[in-house]
Write a structure and sequence with these properties.
alpha/beta, 7-stranded mixed sheet
């Protein structure tokens, strides 16, 4: 079973990373794979209350890969970590199957919650570079979180979240604010667009007011 799962993980990297040339190259050279393998061992120890040793393994993996996964985190099958440098996954985070995380992602807490403090990702969730998902809520299946987004509340299944704080811009494939195809970078922040629209409107009103005032004319005696 272990070899079957490992083969499935390597195949997932091949499907999602166009730079991957072979499973052997992925197994030997990809830090995301190494971080997950270390995490499996650390998580096994964590579940058996060997907390110190589990934490030691996770810190060793962080030094080797630049990816910090708390041994208490629950991770499903075929998670692809692209590049991975700077990724942080908290203790009570849960990640479903077939998810994709890019570099700099944080699955963290807000510091205000007890018990379950970190997010839960459903299946087939993509989290873009530098995104922050903070709090004990769920990101639904097939959701997409754009690069640089800060997500502070639940994301429905099949939706796309963009911005700081993140807002839903697509839901079940249908646009909420606009109809562009969404990837990691080709997204627009609806809040920023609204502010820019309001700025243009203010400029237009100012010009209209200046035009009504006109040049100062002296009244006839």
């Amino acid at each position: 079973m272990y070899l079957t799962r490992l083969s499935g993980l390597l195949a997932a990297y091949q499907r999602r990373d166009p730079a991957a040339r072979s499973k052997l190259e992925i197994f030997l050279l990809y830090p995301g794979v190494h971080a997950l393998l270390w995490h499996r061992a650390a998580h096994w120890l964590y579940l058996r209350r060997r907390y110190f040793l589990a934490r030691w393994i996770s810190q060793h993996a962080r030094k080797k890969t630049g990816i910090e996964i708390h041994p208490g985190a629950t991770i499903g099958q075929r998670l692809v970590i692209d590049h991975g440098c700077g990724i942080v996954i908290g203790e009570t985070a849960e990640i479903g199957d077939d998810c994709l995380l890019y570099q700099g992602v944080t699955l963290g807490g807000t510091g205000k919650d007890q018990g379950k403090r970190h997010p839960t990702l459903g299946n087939n969730v993509m989290v873009g570079s530098g995104a922050r998902v903070l709090g004990p809520f769920k990101v639904g299946d097939n959701a997409r979180i754009a690069a640089g987004a800060v997500v502070l509340r639940e994301v429905p299944p099949g939706s796309t979240a963009v911005g700081v704080p993140a807002r839903i811009v697509r839901l079940d494939g249908c646009p909420v604010y606009y109809a562009d195809d969404v990837d990691q970078i080709s997204v627009r922040d609806p809040v920023r667009e609204e502010l820019e629209r309001l700025g243009r409107q203010v400029e237009k009103l100012e010009r209209a007011l200046e035009g009504r005032k006109g040049p100062h004319r002296r009244r006839p005696a």
